[in-house]
Amino acid sequence: MAPDKPFSQACENNKQPILDRIRNTFTAPGTILEIGTGTGQHAVHFASALPHLVWQPSDRPGATAHCRARIREAALDNLRLPVELDVASGIWPGDSIDGAYSANTAHIMAWEEVEAMFAGLAKRMRTGMPFCLYGPFSYGAKHTSDSNRQFDRHLRMQAPHMGIRDMDDLLKLAEQTGFRLESDHEMPANNRLLVWRKL
Length: 199
Ligand SMILES: C[S@@+](CC[C@H](N)C(=O)[O-])C[C@H]1O[C@@H](n2cnc3c(N)ncnc32)[C@H](O)[C@@H]1O
Prior knowledge:
By secondary structure, the chain is α/β, with parallel strands linked by helices. It has helices spanning 9-22, 41-49, 65-74, 111-124, 146-158, 167-177; strands at residues 30-35, 53-56, 58-59, 83-84, 99-103, 130-135, 137-138, 165-166, 179-187, 191-198. The protein has a six-stranded mixed β-sheet with strand order 2-1-5-6-10-9, with helices on both faces. The protein has a two-stranded parallel ribbon with strand order 3-4.
């Protein structure tokens, strides 16, 4: 692995199943803001398969370097270099967006940051625009698998602000911020793809 190109095996495994879903959601040409891009493997895969989109990666200041070399190397016309975005900062990139995507971020962010992500997107998205959120989620405080229960425990031991988010809380947050859940897809490895629409 090149030191300037961090690699995630999980991303390699899930990028095609996610693409198979999001291609039915991100159908209109436009700019998609990715929050918490990480290694950039999703960004490169999706931008190359969905040339009608402009893919805008972002991550917290200090983390944008994790995807930069991979994105430069991909040299795709519709894939931009990452911009800095910490959803908690209140400082968002100025460009207008037509949709949003975020994977494996809600359980890493503190709940207040998840709130800030929805609220920040709500301010920048027009009615009908989609927000695809991928990751593990629980339902009625019940995990969907033993491995997710263990993962949740592991996260909370690592840092008490982290943890798998519950759909009841997300649905409440969506209602407060102006999103509705359009669909909830079962994905490999006990993950879900949630498609929210701006009201
Ligand atoms: C587990 S990684 C997921 C990376 C990638 N999306 C994936 O699926 O592999 C979590 C990502 O969320 C980002 N993140 C955490 N807190 C954030 C915040 N407050 N604002 C924006 N991104 C954040 C991290 O920097 C990291 O890139």
